[in-house]
Design a protein that fits this description.
- By secondary structure, the protein is mainly α.
- It has a domain at 7-51.
- The chain has helices at 7-24, 42-50, 54-58.
Length: 67
Amino acid sequence: MTRNVGTIDRVARVVIGLIFLAYAFRIGFRDTGWNWVGFIGVVPILTALIGFCPAYALFRISTCRPN
């Protein structure tokens, strides 16, 4: 498994993931009954931590700098 998620992409994924999780835990958001959807934020955080995105691999995309 080679890395295919670059630095800027990783930072963006963490920020987006944290926003989704804040929605799930109702931090700064109202209770809508759909807050559980915010747990999807775990996925971008995990892909940022690992540095590998299966969807990028499927479409042969890489945001890493070439060596």
